[in-house]
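Weekly puzzle thread! Below is a chain. First person to post its structure in token form gets bragging rights.
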Amino acid sequence: MLASDAVIHPALSMQRIWPGPEGYPWKDSGQRLFTREGLLCRTSPGHLLATWTTGAFCEPTPGNFTMYARSMDDGATWTEPGVLFRHTSLGLFTTELFLAGEGEVHAFLQTYGMGSWMTHINSYRAISRDGGITWEGPHSVPGGVDNVWVNKGIRLVSGRWVIPVSWPELIGSEWCEPTHGRPPLEPMVGGKPLAVQEIPYMAEGMLQQNAGNAWADRNHRYCVGTLLSDDGGASFRRSGYLRGGLHGWLIEPRVVELEPGHVVMLIRSQRDGRLWWAESWDGGDSWSQPERSDIPNPAAKVLLLKAADGRVFLIHNPVDSSADIMRGRNPLSLWVSHDGMKTWPVKVDLVTDPNPRQPLNYPDGYIDEGAQELVFVWEDAYSVFFCRLPLSLGD
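Winning reply:
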């Protein structure tokens, strides 16, 4: 939780929109409830929609679900939070609110079980045509895309949608994830028994989750690419098959169009202390091989936005923490480039917590050109904060 003596930049307007002063509605449940990955979009002038994932003690677990709140006065006040998406037996994570037009929001969400990290995800899309009040779906993403982790998309000058994604590929020898108790059947490959890790029956959830994460890391690599749509979301096709990272782990890419058809991708990598970089010169049809950038990053997702005047705004945690992936999601900072991401002359810390291990996570939002403000949310694994920042800070 953000400390009371955290340092907030004076230009940053910040309010907590979740949870309320009473804390979590389920604070007496006995679980260490958490909050993850706030999302924000302006569905029409003055109308904002915010979502976040909560429930259970961490992610991915079956207790995860998505909550929401709306504002009808540009964020001055917010409705009482409610449940947006929840599955009966699987965990659920909403990772993108794509604004297709005024009032039309495409929410991309994934479901998963416990003990296999992202390796068994299923991808869905729900559509609202009234600013997030009512929804169609969730339905499958049209085009045969069913196992990707969806990230923040953009609409190119050409009208094409480019939505970056990541996905796991099994490349190791352990085909089956750890079992909770003795497996009912012995796994076989080619008629021969296959070794499988057995977790004691009735083991606590964190043990299951940790064992599943370790199995996933041992046996998978994580790749990135994009979903492209040239028909307003009626269909999608996947482009790009980008692999790399010092540990075979590239996830949660962000994209920005620097000039017509020239798209740059910044990618989270695990345990190497830097963001990775790839480029497309044909609107996302093809991509350069990823390369390690000189932008520090502690294995955390970033917010990447371009203003109408060409400036590129990057909100992130600029800390090299290659030895410890959770150290360094602090501070939350703004970098600004005036030359197409070649240099970043403006570097401003927005939020700094006195605890260096306190996570200041996952900013998401948009640029309000009329108000000349950067509008975004972020979370500290407990609360969701709504922020406004003048674009003049990036001059």
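Puzzle host: Confirmed. Bonus trivia for everyone else. The longest strand covers residues 91-101.
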